[in-house]
Structures are given as structure tokens and as C-alpha cells.
Amino acid sequence: MSSNVTPFSAEAWRRNADLYEAIRTLPFNTELAAGALRQDRFQHYIVQDGHYLADYARALAIAAAKADDANGIIQFSKAATEAIVVERALHETYFARFGIDRQAFEAIALSPACHHYTAFLLATAYAQPYPVVLAALLPCFWVYGEVGKDILANATTPDNPYQAWIDTYGGEDFQAAVDGAIATTDRVAAGETLATREAMHLAFQRAMQLEWMFWDSAHRLEAWPV
Ligand SMILES: Cc1ncc(C[n+]2csc(CCO)c2C)c(N)n1
User: Which part of the chain is the Thiaminase-2/PQQC domain (predicted)?
Assistant: First the structure.
């Protein structure tokens, strides 16, 4: 069934090539690569990312529960664990550096963009079928894999204060998780109807737009207007 159909991921990336380019060239990412990103902007990002990772882990656990085979259960429950491990590592490195303890972190509200992204992911995970859940989760892996590789290639500044972040997402371990998420999404999509594949494309695009908004919001130090 899958042999005569373009893989979902190839089609999704093609449809969103301009959006990816807009993400890759965001001031947040170019400044991060140059080691020139203002600390308050990175701090805003990393605190929001701590909140994001906790909810993303929940969405992954729901994907694990909805998986159509045992490999999927293992793949997404492992990824849920990994998201929490990364969240805790952030606390030990960057939060410690910025003097933010767990209580202070918990007291900082989700920004509008972070709230929008996590609410979208959780609503999709709870309410939508497995293929659409996978499509909503995929940009988180894939965009970070691509941006991570791009930043690693351009991060030539010695003593970049954000090197630990760059190494996490630019590394080969992370790329293996990206490849696995793409492979499962493509396998599942190949057995679906055109209508479901279009629902997957909508979810994929929305998540990708929210990735752009997440970085942009950190650069603007976004807060609630009221
Ligand atoms: C806004 C935002 N989007 C994506 C990631 C990357 N990411 C977070 S959890 C996970 C999978 C398991 O570790 C991946 C790839 C991030 N950190 N923050």
C-alpha cells in the first residue's frame, strides 16, 4: 500500500519548506548560534521549555497508549521518559546558572505561545486518532533535529554559553530519535485514507507554526497582555 504513495514526511516537509526556512533564520536561532543571544531571552526560552517538556511528555505517553503496535508503545513511552530526563537536566544546568530553583520555576506561568502549543498538543493527543497525534508530535522532533544540525554547523564561536543546548539537539543520539519518529509516522500514514492524511497535514503545519511562535515569543520576552 505504501509503495505507490509519497511518504507523508516528504510531502509535509515540501509543503512547509518556507516555514522551516523562517524558523531556521529566526533571530533567536542565528543569535544562539553566534553565542550572541541575550541572556534574558534564553532564560525566558528555557523556563518556558521546561513547562513545554513536561506537557510534551504527557502527549507522548498518550501517543504510546494509542500506538497500533508494541514497538510504538516502547518508542513513545521511551521518548516520554527522555523528555522528562531533558527537563530535569535543564534544571541542573541552566536553571542553576540563572538561580531559578524548582519553586521559582513552578511559579512562572506558561507564556501565551507555550500555553497555545501545549494546549494544542494535549487536546490533539486526547481527542484525535493515532495518525493525527503522530503528525502533531513530529515537528517537535524534526524541527529541532534540523535546527540543531544547522546551529551546530554554524556555532563556531568559542565558549558559546549555549553550547550544552546546541550539543543536545545537534548530536547523533537525538537524530536517531528524529529518524524513528519520522519512520513511524510514515508507516502509519501509508495505511490511512486521503482524508486522514490531510488531517495529519493540518496538525503537522499547526505544530510547525507553533514552533516558530515559541522561539519568536522568547525573543520578544512575551507575557500575557492582561
Ligand atoms: C518548543 C520545543 N519544541 C521541541 C523541542 C524538542 N524536544 C522536546 S522533547 C523531545 C522528544 C523527547 O526528548 C524533543 C525532540 C523542545 N525542547 N522545545
Answer: 27-219
